[in-house]
Amino acid sequence: xxxxxxxxxxxxxxxxxxxxxxxNPPIGLILCAGKNEEHIELMHLEESNIRxxxxxxxxxxTKLLEQKLNQAMESAKNRLEQKKE
Length: 85
Description:
By secondary structure, the protein is of the alpha+beta class. Helix content is about 45%, strand content about 15%. A hairpin with a 2-residue loop joins strand 1 and strand 2.
């Protein structure tokens, strides 16, 4: 809950101090990995049901991050296709 709150604080600051007319509201990207699963959340200020167990203060190696994002996107596509069936 603390990490979610910290992200909300950053997003509210951006919206108040860095928002340009015509822009969409800022979003936060929370990348989570642990307990044998990976999870990616896009956070909007209007939504409050995001849970975070731990976070990194520095991004991992770019190649590793790219690989993990591609795996997560592929997994999400597969789940969507299964729901359609």
